Amino acid sequence: MFDYLIFGTFVGLLFHGIHRKVIARIQGRPGPPIWQEILHTLKFSFKQTWIPKTASQTLFVWVVLVAIGIWSAALIVLVTRGSLLLLFGIYLLHKIVEHGMGLSSGSPYGKFGAIRSVMSAASELPLFATVGAIYLFTGSMMLTDILAWQTEHGPLLVFAFPAAVALYVVILSKMHYSPFAIIESKEIVSGNMTEHFGVWRAGLEVAFGLKTYVLLYAFVLLFLGPLPFLLVLALMLLLLLSLSFICAFSPMLSPYDTVTVQSLTMGIVAVYIVIVGVLFA
Amino acid sequence: MFELPVTTIEGPELFVLEFGDIVNYFTVYTAVLFTFALLFTILAIISRPERQVDFAFGGDAFYTKDITPGQFRFQRFMALACGMATLGAMMSGDVFNFTLFCSMVGITNIGIVAAYRNRHVLNAAFQYGIVAMIATVPLFGSAAIILATTGTLSMWELFGPAIAVPLVAKIFLVLGVMGEGMAPFYVAKAEITRAPGAPYVLMIHVSSLLLFLRVVEIVISM
Question: In this prediction, does ipTM exceed 0.85?
Answer without folding.
Answer: no
